[in-house]
Amino acid sequence: MLKTPKFWQKKRGISTLLLPLSYLYHLISQYDLQKRAKRAQKLPRPTIVIGNINVGGTGKTPTTITLTKALQARGLTVGILSRGFGRKDRSLQIVTPHSTVQEIGDEPYLIYQKTKAPMAIYSHRYEAGLALLKANPHIDCFICDDALQHRQLERDIEIIVVGAQGFGNGRLLPAGPLREPINRLQRVDFIICNQIFPNELIQQIASFSGRSKVFDQTKIIPLKAELDDAVSLHNPALKRSLETFQPPLSAIAGIAHPENFYQMLRARGLQLTTKSFPDHHQIEEHELATLPPPILMTEKDATKCQHFKMDNLWAVPLKNELPDHFIDTLQRKIMANDR
């Protein structure tokens, strides 16, 4: 996984030198996306795509989990489609309770554990959707995790997730972190703010595009996120309030922006020794040997550490909440697109 360079936050120096390559990237990527969109195939159920326009984690997986559970609470059967980044087997798989992290990938594994929603893993989302629908005919809608640029699949609803890092310097790769220009936000249905205030997001859009006056601010949806009680990896029934942890204490994270996790822990008053890994890193037990226990980690990382023999390992879940009015609106859109 690409490590985010610091110059992506500034409009000078290396970023400016790379601008010609950004223009070339834009021409090539737009041609490719348009070419794939012409061959797009439509699934026989309303399809929601969740993604982002910038490189790195923005909270797509927590958003997928929260959205799926909210729709399930409304009585909808949601089917999840994912490519399963980092998995060893590239074939189409229908997820079962016996599926492993190695077979389906860490993020799909976590989504399934949290939602129990019908799920198919494959790079070609259309074929995955048909296979999942055949196995689960009562699916009401599909959610495609991390599929904004997967234009081979037609979508009824597009959702972009923006994280705490925002859009960096607002420039396209490789001069900045963006896969698509800021004006792509004009064409999506909703923009979910994850650890970034809506007003801050609007200011960024205005500074990069100059379109704040015509931008539909009603499509901006806040995602409320906070850390829940820690859960023991060896005994999931055992939970501890974060405030009960005292130093020495460690935290690890193998996500796109590990510092976001550490900052949330520190905001709860914890003093930490930290160790970061690349996103989707397959953590080995020996890599934690020098860290003072107890060791806190994200739920995503915990999916790869459950078999460790070490004691005092704790997963820290995220509690996420989306506004009821957003779920109401989304449900109406799903019903309107039901075929």
TrEMBL record:
Annotated coiled-coil positions are: none
The keyword Membrane is assigned to this record: no
Q: Name the positions where ATP binds.
A: 54-61
- Superkingdom of the organism of origin: Bacteria
Entries under InterPro entries matching the protein: LpxK (IPR003758), P-loop_NTPase (IPR027417)
This entry's Enzyme Commission designation comes to 2.7.1.130
The keyword Lyase is assigned to this record: no
Catalysed reaction equations from the record = a lipid A disaccharide + ATP = a lipid IVA + ADP + H(+)
Q: What GO MF annotations does this protein's record show?
A: ATP binding; lipid-A 4'-kinase activity
One biological-process term from Gene Ontology? lipopolysaccharide core region biosynthetic process
- Could you say which protein family the record assigns here? Belongs to the LpxK family.
Stated role = Transfers the gamma-phosphate of ATP to the 4'-position of a tetraacyldisaccharide 1-phosphate intermediate (termed DS-1-P) to form tetraacyldisaccharide 1,4'-bis-phosphate (lipid IVA).
Protein's name in the database: Tetraacyldisaccharide 4'-kinase
Q: Which gene encodes it?
A: lpxK
